[in-house]
Recover the amino acids of this structure.
């Protein structure tokens, strides 16, 4: 984007490396039982696969959030959409893409999470920054869980 172009939508990407093979890291996101162990502090229901009925619940934002799985291509990518305050174009949903790349001869996995479709406004930026914080926390919690069996979110929000 050049300095003269108008910003119409906000998005962000966060990345982290997990010392586990790609299939194991993909499953830690796709499998609701595993996701509930380190991320969705109120629980996840439904496997992240296209067409599934999925909900996530968080202690810091109580209430079940419906999640629409747009794509699930093991072990490389998962794309979801979910409601977001201040989403762009009146869509009322943001799109989150999880990309998994095998690195270091398969010993580690690079996980990149990109969320898009936020309004280019102060409220949109506040919402995007909040979710950016959440996805960064998710990556750190997933790494600690998969590599060391430690739940970083236990007691963090309650």
């Amino acid at each position: 984007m050049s300095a003269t172009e108008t910003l119409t939508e906000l998005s962000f990407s966060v990345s982290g490396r997990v010392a586990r093979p790609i299939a194991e890291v993909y499953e830690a996101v796709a499998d609701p039982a595993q996701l509930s162990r380190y991320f969705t502090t109120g629980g996840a229901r439904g496997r992240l696969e296209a067409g599934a009925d999925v909900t996530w619940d968080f202690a810091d934002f109580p209430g079940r959030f419906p999640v629409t799985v747009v794509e699930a291509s093991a072990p490389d990518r998962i794309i979801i959409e979910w409601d977001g305050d201040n989403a762009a174009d009146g869509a009322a949903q943001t799109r989150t893409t999880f990309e998994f790349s095998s690195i270091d001869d398969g010993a580690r996995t690079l996980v990149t999470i990109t969320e898009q479709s936020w309004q280019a406004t102060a409220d949109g930026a506040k919402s995007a920054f909040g979710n950016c914080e959440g996805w960064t926390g998710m990556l750190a919690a997933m790494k600690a869980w998969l590599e060391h069996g430690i739940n970083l979110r236990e007691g963090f929000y309650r």
Observations:
- The mean pLDDT is 92.
- The beta strands are 9-18, 43-45, 54-57, 64-73, 77-83, 93-103, 108-119.
